[in-house]
Write a structure and sequence with these properties.
It is a single chain. By secondary structure, the protein is an alpha+beta fold. The chain has one domain (9-167): Jelly Rolls (Sandwich), CATH 2.60.120.620. It contains 2 helices and 11 strands, in the order βαββαββββββββ. The strands form 3 sheets. It has a 5-stranded antiparallel beta sheet with strand order 1-9-6-11-4. The longest helix has 16 residues, at 58-73. The chain is globular.
């Protein structure tokens, strides 16, 4: 749980175009054969897991994300480990209301790789009401893993790709 931290925090990466292009290229090569897929709702698997050995472009992004997570949590990056999965939304799809508080997570985030116009909004259920965030390429949203959230209907004309990350304590 985040103590004395905002309920969520956004971070934008400068010069994200080449990083996102590499992730998108690697994802397209692997998307039809993920290592694992979970959460079958509304006619699709919401979580697509692809091993980092098949997605080398993700490593640099995970390093950036871990650095931000460590600052938010007041920890050294070496004290954190992370797990990730992809969320591919086709036009007309939504992501169901959920949280990530299932294990020993300390912090969660989503990173936006490819966001077409009219993409669904990230909806965070905060203590004082609902907060709707418009996704942008190169944007992270960090939040506590227990915070319930969903994604509104994707009205874009092409698929949208995001990467979800959970951070937990590194195993000693």
């Amino acid at each position: 749980m985040l103590h004395h931290q905002p309920e969520y925090q956004t971070v934008h990466i400068r010069n994200h175009d080449s990083l996102n292009a590499g992730i998108l290229r690697d994802f397209q090569a692997c998307r039809h054969a993920p290592d694992r897929q979970t959460h079958f709702f509304h006619g699709r698997y919401e979580n697509l897991y692809i091993d980092i050995r098949r997605m080398p472009s993700v490593r640099a992004l995970l390093d950036i994300a871990t650095g931000h997570a460590a600052r938010i949590l007041g920890m050294d990056p070496g004290q954190l480990r992370c797990g990730f999965w992809f969320n591919l939304m086709e036009p007309g799809q939504v992501t169901s209301l959920h949280s990530h508080d299932e294990d020993d997570e300390l912090l969660s985030c989503v990173y936006y790789v490819d966001v077409p116009a009219s993409s669904g909004e990230l909806v965070l259920l905060l203590e004082d009401g609902e907060k709707r965030l418009k996704p942008e390429n190169g944007m992270f949203v960090f939040f506590p893993p227990w915070l319930e959230h969903e994604v509104s209907r994707h009205e874009g004309k092409r698929p949208r790709l995001s990467l979800a990350i959970n951070f937990g304590p590194a195993e000693g």
